[in-house]
Design a protein that fits this description.
CATH architecture of the largest domain: Alpha-Beta Complex
CATH class of the largest domain: Alpha Beta
Radius of gyration: 20 Å
Strand content: 25-35%
CATH superfamily of the largest domain: Medium-chain alcohol dehydrogenases, catalytic domain
Helix content: 10-25%
Largest sheet: 7 strands, mixed
Number of domains: 2
CATH topology of the largest domain: Quinone Oxidoreductase, Chain A, domain 1
Order of helices and strands: EEEEHEEEEEHHEHEHEEHEHEHEHE
Shape: globular
Number of helices: 9
Length: about 350
């Protein structure tokens, strides 16, 4: 089985036009590259392998030859709807692992030939589902030596989300108890590992067939979201990481200890803030940000064997639409990755 994600934003709210919002427009005589491109919103069938101008790095940017690019649920959503990005034409993709080809003015951290991985600025910097991409040098870090480009490409957006939610927002500490919804998913399975590395007791929700997978990742307890009510026990948590939103967010308030933290990755129901205030807990919604310090922390976890992405499948760039079809089933574990080189 294989998997990937696709789509690139050529236009940004600030008027920049190129592979991503911060990328300068390619010169008229720019060489061409292949990209998983769309000219209209819609289903996976709108994704086409297309020749587009290769971007050039502007000040503070690097040009990366993409070896692999991760696929995330946000790619499916932006392919179908104008959420944060302007309407097509678009090339999606925020995760990238590859090799530096060229550096822009003022870049001192990387040189051509360096292997890097990172998350393009979310949401306006999309464009990694292509042969080349540009982005701010400080959106990248040195690729972990312990893994290949496919593994590295599966990490950035999902791992940064988990890191920023658990470590930087919730301040998760050793001995605390954390509940992770959708724990077998892209963000969830990395969050389980990060929480365990912090010394926390981890409970994850997932369908029963995925519980063995969660145990292998280090989860201490599992809840079958199809047949069990996570609010139906006396268990109380210091932190809840919620990737589902809606009523799940509101119901998660009831399982937090006073002073606990609910971090949602999608908006909760309208009554979530009031429920949180009444319960004496903090409820916030997180939008992931590119962050070199976070990427370096993730690389260090990978290199010492504490964090590894589970890749359910890989797809060549030309088959990106098929990866979207698989990803939208919601039945895969971990991540899907598009391979380019």
């Amino acid at each position: 089985m294989t998997s990937t994600e696709t789509s690139e934003s050529l236009n940004s709210p600030n008027g920049a036009t190129a592979t991503g919002s911060s990328n300068p427009a390619a010169p008229q005589d720019a060489p061409l590259m292949l990209a998983l491109h769309q000219t209209v919103l819609g289903g996976p069938e709108v994704l086409q392998l297309t020749e587009v101008p290769r971007p050039a790095p502007g000040p503070g940017q690097i040009l990366v030859a993409v070896h692999a690019a991760g696929l995330n649920p946000t790619d499916f959503k932006h392919r179908a709807l104008s959420i944060f990005l302007p309407p097509p034409p678009l090339t999606l993709g925020w995760d990238v692992s590859g090799t530096v080809v060229e550096t822009g003015y003022g870049v001192t951290l990387f040189r051509p030939g360096d292997e890097v991985f990172g998350m393009l600025p979310y949401p306006y910097g999309a464009g990694s589902h292509a042969e080349y991409v540009t982005g701010p040098a400080r959106a990248f870090a040195a690729k972990p030596a312990a893994v290949d480009h496919v593994q590295a490409a599966a990490l950035p957006l999902a791992a940064l989300t988990a890191w920023q939610a658990l470590v930087e927002t919730a301040g998760l500490r050793a001995g605390q108890r954390v509940l992770i919804h959708a724990a077998a998913g892209g963000v969830g399975h990395l969050a389980v590992q990060i929480a365990k590395d912090r010394g926390a007791h981890v409970t994850g929700t997932a369908s029963a067939p995925k519980h063995g997978f969660l145990r292998e990742l280090g989860a201490d307890a599992c809840i079958d979201h199809r047949s069990e009510d996570f609010t139906g026990t006396d268990e109380r948590y210091d932190v809840v990481l919620d990737a589902l939103g809606g009523e799940t967010a509101t119901r998660s308030v009831s399982v937090l200890r006073p002073g606990g933290v609910l971090v949602s990755l999608v908006p909760g129901a309208k009554d979530t803030p009031a429920a949180a205030e009444k319960a004496g807990v903090r409820a916030v919604t997180l939008l992931v940000e590119h962050d070199q310090a976070g990427m370096r922390a993730i690389a260090e976890l990978v290199d010492r064997g504490s964090l590894r992405a589970h890749v359910s499948g890989t797809f060549p760039l030309a088959e990106g639409a098929r990866a979207h079809v698989l990803g939208e089933t919601g039945r895969t574990k971990g991540k899907l990755v598009i391979t380019v080189r």
